[in-house]
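Progress report, Aim 2. The chain analyzed during this reporting quarter is listed below.
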Amino acid sequence: MDIIDAGDACEWHLEDQFWTQDGQGAFQLRSHRGVPLPEALGDLDFLIATRRCPRCRVSAFLPAAFRHCPHCGAPLGAPGETQPWLPPYGQTGGWRCHERAGSPAGALLERLLARPGSLDDHRQVLKAPRKGGLLYFAAPLGGHGNALFALSRAGELFLWQRSSEQWLSLVAEQQPLGGFDLELWAWGLALLDTAAGPRLLLAGTEGATSLCVDPLQLSYRLQRCSGRALGAPGELEGRVYVPLLQDGRVLLADSAGEAWSSRALEDIDAPALQKLSAPILNAADRQLLWVGSQGYLELRLDDGAQAQVRWHAWPQGWQAYPEFGPPFRDGEGFWQQLIETERQAMCYVKLDGRLQERRLLQGTRMGTGHLSIQSDALLQRPWDEYDRNLHTQKQVFYPFMEFAAERLLLGLRVDHRSSVQKFFANPGPHPTDYCLERIDGERRSLHLSVERPWDAQWLVFDDALWLAIDSNGALYRWS
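Predicted structure tokens for the chain:
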């Protein structure tokens, strides 16, 4: 460490960082590893793991080499660890249910629910980098801890700056990202740790992509397996798998985070792979499932860790709506809701490859994979009976996420007297209540009139709850 006295200011040379300290004692980072710091980059805790003083505010950030504040002597703790948040449901393996008790996200929602007033009363309105067509995620790409990113359908990548509440554009070092055309409920991402640092795995109109970010240069670079994504990436035992369409053939691309390999799936026809959900992880059986409207794609690792892939078509005349939620899972296995296209009969079929075991029911269910919903009735199992005289409200109750240990739901409610299928076929606008609520308990709502209200994303980042609405580009935060 070298300290140079320059009159009223000091220069600090700390390993690969150059800092200045002004006459009032405030520190400012000038360069890192010889690279001048862009003025727009203000979140130094993410960039280089700087420290904050819990007691005084003379300097917004202090060098990571310091163990005590030079102004007040307070000990400087290391930055707290946070969890990545990956769409569509926050790194839950494709399930809409967070089962772990005591999570920071669950604790945050408890605090927000306990606060008097509605979500309307406490919302902060933020400016999104684009009006709609965005996917938000939090990941440790190129920095220390997690940063918030936004990815546009056109392939633009943005980095959020907490200090200035501004979005910065990241540019491609070579190849650009390309476009994305998956539905928002199916548009998932994967994250892998590699020897060179974390890599984000994406799938879009140009193929399967592995991405790394250099935030100091405000740039990114990628490696790609060309094709068009039929589904989102799925992670299983340290590798990521993506179904692709290339020159009319279905391929399976896979990567451990950097280079890609691929092989043709000769027995699978591309037209059958329609509206595939984000992949469902079944770690116990070493399995990934992409549930589509015409059937489901199953990937299973054999004893030699080789991926075996099969397509299972639904019974003739039946169709799935994966946007209504992932399969229900119980001690017997996974169950997918199917609807007969002619008679509108409904059943749940067991996803065991044979598709012969069924449970008939009346009425369309929404679900998280753990909890099922019909109108305003909450069901432990989708085929459970309930007293319809006690549940007379005609509405669509769409669950985005369930926090099972806390018995909390993030969802939307819309008064609607017709079928769920007709609701999703009508873009609206719909008068909508976006809700944080306890199951069979209190509720906090944000009332809006929006088109396609199901095209929205809840996320937790920086000890705050965020809501992004696709149709109007709105971005809200509660902290």
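The first strand starts at residue 2 and ends at 6. The chain is about 5% helix and 45% strand. These observations will guide the mutagenesis work planned for the next reporting period.
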